[in-house]
Amino acid sequence: MPRSKRSPSPAFGQSPTYSTAEVARLWGVSESSVKRWSDNGLLPCVRTPGGHRRFTLQALLEFQRTTGEKLLAEQGQGAGLSDVELAIAARDWSQLQMVYYKVAIAGDEATGAALLEQLYRSGLSPVEITEQLLTPVLHLIGDRWRRGELNIWEEHLASQVTLAATEHLHRQVPHAPPQGRLALCGCPEGDLHEIALHLVVEVLETEGWRVLSLGPNTPLFSFADAIQRFAPHLICISATIVQDLERLRRDYGHFYQMARRHGARIVIGGAAFADPQVRSIFVHDFQAAGLSDFVEYLRREFPTVPPSER
User: Fold this and answer.
1) What is the residue-wise DSSP string for 87-151?
2) Which fold, 182-309?
3) In CATH, what number does 10-82 get?
4) What's the pTM value of the predicted model, to 2 decimals?
5) What is the pLDDT of residues 131-179, one digit of tens each?
6) Side-chain half-sphere exposure of 165, counting CA atoms within 13 A
7) In the chain, what are the domain boundaries?
């Protein structure tokens, strides 16, 4: 789903730019200080057709690294904003992705969690953070591992950092009141990729669902038994890879019948379903292209019910 991005004026190219007032808020100083530094040549700016100052991210970073550190400290602002804080303010996803990539493969759970919390505190939703930061980085890590550019332990560390960081963020996010709805989630047999499943579970919990996660590598016959036992309203299947298509084809019939018997909706999502052959086996009610797509489906098909109407 297309995401809105901050777009600078065409006159300034493709890099984000900031007004005098925005720079003053970023650094916690007065607008007159920003103008004075600009007039003195310490903080270069460009001018709009109307004569207003605009400052590029590169100019702010350069000022921060040199003269700005001292000037900001003299005004009681300490060291000002870090490169990461400026990147967050600018929504510079390329820089933030590289920061998270390095943190993830180094196994630095604390820094990963702190970065996600900073992004959330800046006004971004967990779904936006996932789609703009986590998903691209995890794809990059997977691609580099497959090409032999990363060791398997680096890929595993990145997975653990992401699980820990998203769990930390999940605890910070307000949850909708319980809606009395149950979702059953899992990955099919042979699929060990748990991060996407983990994120789906967190989205559901945030939306007020009770969730039972069967985890990765769950045979469909076992999935069907769980449907019979718990009678969920929704079944979510996350699949990055699938193995043994013939067995899946055989087992899915019973799974599907059990889901329909209990009136459950079936949602599928993940890279594996880009294959038409796989998709044809997993007859479903909805295929989610991403988490934002999934959230829209949930809110459309399962609207929030006020307590007085339950």
Assistant:
1) HHHHT-HHHHHHHHHHHHHTT-HHHHHHHHHHHHHTT--HHHHIIIIIHHHHHHHHHHHHTTSS-
2) Rossmann fold (3.40.50)
3) 1.10.1660.10
4) 0.75
5) 999 999 999 999 999 999 999 999 999 999 999 999 999 999 999 999 8
6) 29
7) 10-82, 92-172, 182-309
